[in-house]
Amino acid sequence: MRLATIHLEGKETATVVTAKGVVPVAVLNEAFGKSWPEDMFQIICTGVLEEMKEWYNHGGRAKTEKINAIPKKDAAFAPLYRHPSKIWGIGLNYADHAGDLAEKAPTGRPASFAKFDTTIIGTGESIRLPLQSQKTTGESELGIIYGKKCKDVKKEDWLSVVAGYTTIIDMTAEDILRLNPRYLTQVKNFDTFFSYGPELVTPDEVEDVMKLRVATVINGKIHAQNVVSNMTFPPDFLVSYHSEIATMLPGDIISTGTPRAVQLNEGDVIACHIDGFEPLVNPVVDLKVKK
Q1: Which residues contact 18 (CB under 8 A, 6 or more apart)?
Q2: In a shared domain, residues 101 and 133
């Protein structure tokens, strides 16, 4: 099952993604006598997603396909939701990216950092390069979204707490980071420094997450790509490990690391491409450039 959030009639509303476009959950509720939440965060937090998947995979998909959908080209996509309780970013999770920064890839423990929800934007929204940075980079990543409150999850049980996957573009004020690695929290949390969506893809839609290719695409050309299996810390480890640090809540996000970052400049368009996922695309505006 694939879901997205769109701007519709002055609010952000959850939709189910079909081959023809997106169908608002409100329309499904009316058509099939359901009372599902119309907000993506509530769908995840209330556990209703499991009920929706069960319905969708046992006849609901065919029924949904028959309903008039909003074509994707006409849909104004928003972030999946605005206020997760936690966003964990994972630094240098591919050895190639560690080489970019002339650093060694972490071993034993992932290089985790926190992101604020004020960084969040969605596909099509502008990434704003801050006045304070002369070198801001963008990084395509696979996102993992928790679907349950959990603590001390075993690696072999990781999928039991996962609501789905998404595409992410994370940003870093790299020149500031090079001054002192302790500036990591600062350089990761300028406004617009975390784009995600447009789709939440449930695990049953992904045959093998380890085989997914993640690519950072700049101005239509692949800058770098790698396969999830080449991560130092794979998804099962990350989901388990972070639940050992903190109680994870529904809607919490792990941004699993990038194959390689690319410097962003005024007028660029950066995209995250993952096999089988709708691309995440953001234009770039440099606040230092006078219009």
Answers
A1: 64, 65, 67, 69
A2: yes
195 and 222: one domain?
yes
Q: Give the tens place of pLDDT for each residue, 48-82.
A: 999 999 999 999 999 999 999 999 999 999 999 99
Q: Which residue is associated with the tokens 């409150």? A: 149
Tokens, residue 251? 């809607």
Final residue in a domain of this structure, among 74, 102, 129: 74
Helix then strand count (H, E) for the chain reads 8, 17
For the record, the structure tokens of 91 come out as 């630094």
Give pTM, 2 decimals.
Answer: 0.95
179-197 burial, b for 16+ CB within 10 Å, e for fewer?
eeeeebeebbbbebbbbbb
What is the C-alpha to C-alpha distance for residues 59 and 157, in angstroms, rounded to an integer?
A: 28
Question: Does residue 23 lie in a domain region?
Answer: yes
- The two three-digit tokens of residue 36, written as one number: 């599902």
Report the distance separating Cα 73 and Cα 67, nearest Å: 17
Does residue 277 lie in a domain region? yes
Find where tokens 């953001």 sit.
282
Host domain of residue 64:
2-74
Q: How far apart are CA 180 and CA 142, in angstroms?
A: 27
Domain boundary among 13, 48, 74: 74
What is the number of structural domains in the chain? 2
